[in-house]
Amino acid sequence: MNSPNDTARVLVQALPYIQRFHGKSVVVKLGGAAIDAELDRALAQDVLLLRSVGVRCVLIHGGGPQVDAMMRRVGKEPEFRNGLRVTDEETLEIVRMVLVGKINRDLVGTINREALEDPVAVGVSGEDGGLLQVTPRESSLGYVGDVSLVRASVLHRLLDEGLTPVVSTIGADGNGQPYNINADEAARAIAVAMAAEKIVYLTAAPGLLEDVADESSLVPRLTSAELRERIGHASVSAGMIPKLQACADAVDAGVGTAHIIDGRVPHALLIELLTDEGIGTMVKREKSW
Amino acid sequence: MNSPNDTARVLVQALPYIQRFHGKSVVVKLGGAAIDAELDRALAQDVLLLRSVGVRCVLIHGGGPQVDAMMRRVGKEPEFRNGLRVTDEETLEIVRMVLVGKINRDLVGTINREALEDPVAVGVSGEDGGLLQVTPRESSLGYVGDVSLVRASVLHRLLDEGLTPVVSTIGADGNGQPYNINADEAARAIAVAMAAEKIVYLTAAPGLLEDVADESSLVPRLTSAELRERIGHASVSAGMIPKLQACADAVDAGVGTAHIIDGRVPHALLIELLTDEGIGTMVKREKSW
Amino acid sequence: MNSPNDTARVLVQALPYIQRFHGKSVVVKLGGAAIDAELDRALAQDVLLLRSVGVRCVLIHGGGPQVDAMMRRVGKEPEFRNGLRVTDEETLEIVRMVLVGKINRDLVGTINREALEDPVAVGVSGEDGGLLQVTPRESSLGYVGDVSLVRASVLHRLLDEGLTPVVSTIGADGNGQPYNINADEAARAIAVAMAAEKIVYLTAAPGLLEDVADESSLVPRLTSAELRERIGHASVSAGMIPKLQACADAVDAGVGTAHIIDGRVPHALLIELLTDEGIGTMVKREKSW
Amino acid sequence: MNSPNDTARVLVQALPYIQRFHGKSVVVKLGGAAIDAELDRALAQDVLLLRSVGVRCVLIHGGGPQVDAMMRRVGKEPEFRNGLRVTDEETLEIVRMVLVGKINRDLVGTINREALEDPVAVGVSGEDGGLLQVTPRESSLGYVGDVSLVRASVLHRLLDEGLTPVVSTIGADGNGQPYNINADEAARAIAVAMAAEKIVYLTAAPGLLEDVADESSLVPRLTSAELRERIGHASVSAGMIPKLQACADAVDAGVGTAHIIDGRVPHALLIELLTDEGIGTMVKREKSW
Amino acid sequence: MNSPNDTARVLVQALPYIQRFHGKSVVVKLGGAAIDAELDRALAQDVLLLRSVGVRCVLIHGGGPQVDAMMRRVGKEPEFRNGLRVTDEETLEIVRMVLVGKINRDLVGTINREALEDPVAVGVSGEDGGLLQVTPRESSLGYVGDVSLVRASVLHRLLDEGLTPVVSTIGADGNGQPYNINADEAARAIAVAMAAEKIVYLTAAPGLLEDVADESSLVPRLTSAELRERIGHASVSAGMIPKLQACADAVDAGVGTAHIIDGRVPHALLIELLTDEGIGTMVKREKSW
Amino acid sequence: MNSPNDTARVLVQALPYIQRFHGKSVVVKLGGAAIDAELDRALAQDVLLLRSVGVRCVLIHGGGPQVDAMMRRVGKEPEFRNGLRVTDEETLEIVRMVLVGKINRDLVGTINREALEDPVAVGVSGEDGGLLQVTPRESSLGYVGDVSLVRASVLHRLLDEGLTPVVSTIGADGNGQPYNINADEAARAIAVAMAAEKIVYLTAAPGLLEDVADESSLVPRLTSAELRERIGHASVSAGMIPKLQACADAVDAGVGTAHIIDGRVPHALLIELLTDEGIGTMVKREKSW
């Protein structure tokens, strides 16, 4: 329980961070792991608070587990190759329905519920306004694409209007054929194209760990070069690799900092951006902390 | 096969219509009936052409048959009461996935494919930016809502940016709970809130017929008062009643004209708006044709 | 000492207030009593934090004690009639120098020091751009004026540019003759002309007290009508009367709420605006809390 | 007679051209040869239609025959040297009256008549706003000038306001002395200065002919280099030479394409710009058709 | 010869007038009487100076004598009925050529010559952008029209761009048929539609005279009511009546003041607007000088 | 006494200068020497007149003698080292009060008095909006600073709003500590940062003199190189040296011309800028007069 006095002190301690990030873009990638309603609500509050202090937040979400569930519900077994979902036409349709028609909707709804009189969240798929243009990855995977072009102005125009975009990572190729895109990778491409100040990955781990079995062995900060070295190590979990790769690529392409933080901690985003302590792992191009 | 000469003549005949509708808003409601890819492509071309001559088009779509199909696919039987879908939580989730995650996506994709280098279509759900706020209709129907507020600025801002909104008719109540909305009714509410020049219903009939069994018995034009008189008649098919009601309500609330046209005719929209002949039934408040 | 977790919780609790006051104008009157450097610094942080969440703050200051000190330093004894400073030409010159050339400067300096890379405070006297036009009060008082016109656009234009005005309450009559103005009264006139959401008086008391000798007898809220009734009471200190009068007048002329709070409490302004508890006395036109 | 269906098809075929030329500038030079009222009306419709699909049209006109007629009417014999009109002071005054006060007026009137409620055409002489600044060509020709500076912003500002400029090719030197300018040449200078997408010459021939005596021997397209080679050939009529020269110069200076088309064909402009077939001769810098 | 000192004093004396007229519109009607090049130059300087101090000047010109001369040159005798020119089609064409193609051109040229590096004058006919819409006066007069609609935005948009419009008083009816308009009357209609601060008639007389034979009997100021009384008097010359009528009508319709001044005095316009003395006759609605 | 005719002639002679300086910035430095009320009034008129013809004037003032007087009044003796005021904390406070709270106020008041209904002057200290950032000069001088950064946008934004800034030359270092700045030097830094057309020093001498004892030995114009050569000469008064240095530095850093003129001559500023004669000494980078 905080006294009003404590409250003021806390707000004032956040001021230098607010001043630093005002007007900057921050791209936040949510994990596809089963999302807790209370955590979602806390995240919505974080995003609205950051917006109210002038941070331009874009949310990117995946949705692997929910897609798997829906596929099984219609009697289709998910299939993966090197960690990537084999995506035939029927799968693509299900991916699209689940991401755009369910997960994105729930996120938009949660934010707008917290936003009270001024609903600011809008759902965006990578197909809208040609936001994410893709090239096919390899034919054996079916409709799985790599981002070849980001039309960042679609997002900037929404942000300029005071709206907060929530992005599903479906893209389209030059012929308008939709493709499934890895969400970690799409988040990176968007952050780079927006010249974002930060990209933040919310994960089900405290960050990058020295020892994957020991949650207290967090690596608080490292350079992109140091990060690249670790990617091959045995100590790194397979699921973490695309995120680590994306973090290194993002900062090397001009994004200010990349963060891997624990999405299971309520308000982790706010803590990472507006407090001295921070949580999770931060990646920069140069050693300048 | 047209000669260049004919081409020019046709274009020039369209000029007075172009001059009249430039800068005006036109709301187009697509039927939920199974949509033909070729017809969709023709509609996409119509919308892009109207946009290029300065018409501000908004597309609204339903999707009843596709929702039914998906429900059955996951082993759930659709249930209706007085023509309205009984919508429990699971049904709502399926409606939302099909409308927002499938039908809307396909329409956006089709338009952007025709738009070539300049993808302009963006999908919008009534939940985005609080576009459609609803109140529940009656508890026995579950999550079926009536539009109580339209935030038309969400659409006008997209149109001002040169984007073409494609709207799924899911709304939310004051607590952010999503609701299913009748698409005919949502289209009317949007047209009125936008102060649209026209609302156009694309249907699977030539328009309003004197004799429902005789497609040649089209009523080309009538006032909203005349239309209201006919709504009770035996000659009117049940499925047509909500559209007729919406047409009468729209023009009485200030929309310039309401049209019921045949969505099975390629380019019906363009023909209705840019040629002398027109097709289908036109409703105005006053006898001024 | 707050944990990051507490920090986040505090920030999130402030969110509804931030949403409510975003884009609104708040006029803050500082007392002329000797100002503590640390308190000033806390106030500067409050103003910057409010600015960063979109509140349009204007600071108004008086400076009676400092004027008295300067007068005595040049060998002139301050003289008052009914609580108002008798202001001959020499006194006016000293008032102006102390208010505009010293107190205003110190406040601007303190805010800009906290603002780091983005110095946003600008000093404004009521003579600048004709901000405060006055008529003389009564000849025996010399150059003491009442505000007859506020050119609020001078302040709005600065706020639109992202600047934070700090106002000294010197005005000028139609012939450009400067006049001294009561700062409580000038703050009210400015808040009304700006159609401010709030006017806040920082005083050397906890607020309006039931019993002036008992600081715990605070009246937390009352209507302007209730306040007017109390103004004549013996329980009200003489120095408080102009502030109470100004509060009642402000809310009756359209300002949302008026507040009298304790300027001796660090961050009192932030606590009053962004926390549930609030401190001090709040005045509204109607009983709607 | 077209069916509505044909109409729609024609409109849709024009769509890719509309998309390509939207927002681009097109400079159209009308011949000075006796102009048929019906052809003028068709041209006015073409210009209005192009404007309605976002093409920024500027019309440039000459007027040789009408000047000759007026000169003879006041008892003065036209005199030419190397195809250029010898222009003494009295001649200059007649040229100016006929171009600005008659031909320009008739064109503006014709367009505004077709534009119905929204008269958009405005007459502009090269003297207005200093649009065309000239240097004298050679003293023996009198007041005949070459364009030395085009203030294209005069035209762009009118186009930005939705107005359609109709330009008479009178310019002025640095001392404000008016000069007569060759209209083919002025059109080229304007197109280059505007960074136009197209310059179109409407002539009394089908275009560039292989055999000047055989109207079916049209050269449909060639590069500027190929065009320059032909200019000296016997097969090219003298009157065509300045146009050919201007076409080659225009595309070499950055104008997208130059066209010589048959002004005697109704709607030739529209056919050339918005249909697959095109008519007349098209010149580009590179062989890229 | 003025000393620099005198110069400064003169400039400073003009300051209050400059402050008063800054941003205001002033419509100046030039007489059609033979215009002296030196007087024209002085007028151009006046207009440029007024423009440089923020006055929005519009020039309107007639041209009776020059039309007569041109008509006779092509062998046609001018004919008048009740002071109005009988205007058959041929006459209309000559009127248009002389006004738009000669007088307007000369004025534009003179102003741009004085404007040096920044040519700001643009010629406008009442047909351009539909500026002056007319209804025919009476059939026996042929193409003589009365102004029924002024599209003042055409002029305001040019003025907003820093351009100075010079207007020829040719208008068009709803079918685009051009008509000759009395210039005094057109100037009034334009001043009223622009909500001008002043309308100024430059004439070949010192103003309104008590005794038409005595140039020293100037009436310096009178109300519109007083002016209307005098219009019928024998002392008023026939040629002055339309101007007097227009002055009274203009101020009664909201124009600030109307002036009749001596166009034969160099810089009469500047003297009237920027000095204490003024020259000529001033008309106001109320006696407030 | 001027006749209206002379008045007009004078105004017209100023026209070319007005055309040349329209939209340009002019920085005017006023001497700190005792200022005569009548001269101040004349200067205010000059500034308002220049503003009304589109010149963007910024006034910079010093105030040495008035600071000395105030210091003595509170019993403190002014102390100088190499012509620079030794500035301890108490001195700094007095300097700030006198400059910002007295001299600046009087100038703002004088201009607004002359500006009548439209008070345009606003006082600005170098601390406002961080206008003047400084580094300390040398510790023995105390709080005397050199300008290290000018935030010229503070001034440009005020000018864009139609306001006229009057600047006191107090600046602040990175920690917000205020410093006294030499006003001649601050004026130069501001003129350079604004890319001003002119910097004008109003002094108590006719300009640069060949023989300091002979006021008729004025050097009317010279290059910055010629000026630098003279700075060391015995003929140059010590007080003039910083101004001469500043003039040479200003034009070498891109300011169009620098002027030293006689502030004792009423309207000297206007005479220098708007008449052929000019007064005082003009410095340019190149010999191009």
TrEMBL record, chains A, B, C, D, E, F:
Protein name, UniProt field: Acetylglutamate kinase
Xref: NCBIfam families: argB (TIGR00761)
Transmembrane residue ranges: none
Main subcellular location of this protein, as a coarse class: cytoplasm
GO molecular function annotation: acetylglutamate kinase activity; ATP binding
Swiss-Prot/TrEMBL catalytic activity: N-acetyl-L-glutamate + ATP = N-acetyl-L-glutamyl 5-phosphate + ADP
Enzyme Commission (EC) number: 2.7.2.8
Site (Transition state stabilizer): 29, 243
Record Pfam families: AA_kinase (PF00696)
Record lineage: Bacteria, Pseudomonadati, Pseudomonadota, Alphaproteobacteria, Sphingomonadales
